Amino acid sequence: MKYKTIFFLFLSTFLIGSESIQYLSISEFQKSIENSENKKVFLKFYIEKINELDKETNSIISLYSADKLYKSYVYGKNKDWQGIPILLKDNIDTKGLANTAGSISLIDNFPRNDAQLVRNLKKSGFLILGKANLSEWANFRGENSVSGWSSYGGQTRNPYNLELSPCGSSSGSAVAVALGLVPVSIGTETNGSITCPASINGVVGIKPTVGLVSRYGIIPISSTQDTAGPLAKSVLDAAIVLQAIAGKDPKDKYTHSIPSDYNFDALTRLDKNYLNNKRIGLITPNQNAPDEAFRLIEKVKQQLKLLGAEVIEVSFAPVPQNFWSSALFVLQHEFYIGLNSYLKKSKSKMQDMESVINFNKSNSEQVMSFYGQEYFIKSVDSAPGKTIGDIRTEIIYQESLETLDYAKRAIDSALVNNKLDALVGLTRNTAWKINYETGDAFENSWGNGALSAISGYPHITIPLDFSDNLPTGVSFMGAAWDEVKLLNLAYSFEQYNNFLPRPIQDKN
């Protein structure tokens, strides 16, 4: 496909100044649709072109019709962000579209209601374009899974190199933004599912504090770690979306922990000089990391200093011996509870995890051609009321949660003991080759984010630099409810670094 030719045909119709619609900010996109004489034609043409542009990357799993979008646009008239198209990861309930988690077992799962975050987006005027592909079941079905692949949506591919992984599980959400198919999207994260694809595809990703955004209407994995967050081309655009979706929800008790003085308006009041006089804890790569990792972290260090920050290198105490096994058990235990609760309220024929397992077995050629469903089976074995050995799973679960408290203690101690404003480090290594025989190549990866995910603390990644023609990201991490501070730090760094990768494939 000759992407440049396609873009020319598309973009020649909709130009604003010297910038094409592909790379417009959400405010600029809003102006473009407002200035269009025929909104319906605009939307029809837009959908046709993004479908054409997405043929090789396969980031989109389903779309509303142009007529439906036009009606939604009219409904959102005079809202803050009227007409801004946004894609949602296909594990978020959205009326009129199946919510599949990428699994053909849920093709009949048409939600009765919108997820709370979808309601919030609509209230702000955002135009729900459709659903983005993902790693099936948010990468928690089986071992040796392949990021970006789902039995319903197929394989999402990295826009910088189609043979490379887009990471996951919010693969389509990141790729669509990277290609400029939409200005912003929504992903979800349990452990790295926003920040990894954001970093690898060269976009901004925000994993908020667990509880800042309602999880009601999202197919769950973990009640203690799941959250939704935005992906965008810039920190400001991501902040605008975060502001729109954040807030308390009586149907998600975790949102009740949002501090009473949390300033939602401050999320978009960003200061480019914010890094001046701030104390930043720098997380350096471990000694086994490649030279490239040290080059990148040195670049981060020097830029922080140039912006007036005081940089202090930090390290964490070794993780408890059973930390990672405890982390997995918590996910399995919570997954069983959460998924069963979701399915019982759904319109799907799948009413519990066991029925999904049986469906996968009966359709193994299509569903499990590359990897199995070990996490499903282990989740059943880890369910409440079961025993492992002579110990009840409820006891193992509580002990595991206590072990995982290390993540919060590690971050809090580093911040307090060193009087830091935030922690900064590399998000992760560049993309790896898609391999259906071995699955994702996480074994030798380097980067940060696991502690933020397990603790439920916020994590923002922004594009940093190219490494071997592939984008890398830098991470800003902090304590619970530190989004305003982290957004300002990331914005300040972004404005100086001015690195905006643009993956246009031009293939003959």
Automatic annotation (TrEMBL):
Any GO MF annotation of the entry: amidase activity
Entry-linked Gene3D superfamilies: Amidase signature (AS) domain (3.90.1300.10)
E.C. number(s) listed in UniProt: 3.5.1.4
A Pfam family it matches: Amidase
EC class of the enzyme, as a word: hydrolase
Domain of life: Bacteria
Sequence ranges assigned to domain Amidase in this UniProt record: 43-487
Keywords: Hydrolase
PANTHER family: AMIDASE, OS04G0183300 PROTEIN
Protein's UniProt name: Amidase
